[in-house]
Amino acid sequence: MQDPTAIQPDKMTILTTLTQEDYVLVVNAASPYQTLEDLLKAPSLRYATTGVGTGAQLSQALLFKAANVKATDVPFDGGAPAATALLGKQVDALSGSLAETMPQIKAGKFRPLAIFSEKRSSYLPDVPTAPEKGFDVVVDQRRFIVAPTGLPDAVAKKLTDSFAEARKDAAYDKFLKDNYMERWEVSDQEARQHLTDAAKEYADLSKKFGLTFGSGK
Known about the structure:
The protein is 37% helix and 23% strand. It is an alpha/beta fold.
């Protein structure tokens, strides 16, 4: 069934691109799973997600399917309750954004096992990527600002120029670092191509592994 709320790039004007946020797979620091290999040897797993159809669910579902691990997703209404469930050992693992997980990683309460990115994160340089471990699962979150198509060129330019100027502010740079975000500043064409490629890749992988998000399976 087609999602009526899905983003349609051809029906929007991308004014500016902003950030890339990586997802990291973590376990409770008291967990017996020291490495990704240990986790994937488990006979069965329960993993928390930040909601049905989110990157948190997609990244873990693809990984566990690719590794042929029996795993059950447990959706929560956002990152905070999902992290709380992992702290309480109600689930075995969680994939969350760095903003959602780094406070607990730095506090020694979460152990990071893998990053779902093409290259290692500058915030967690010692944590391997999923591709490094043999799993071509790259899932991240991109943020950008859009407007309806048909926006007058003069208005679009003024807005775009304003955002470009704001990105130079030291306060913005501090905000990114405080929230463990990477800059993603590309052209409108590159952004559209990324969205198109990512949508196709995730659709193909979901079909390959028989994933139907929202079905509870």
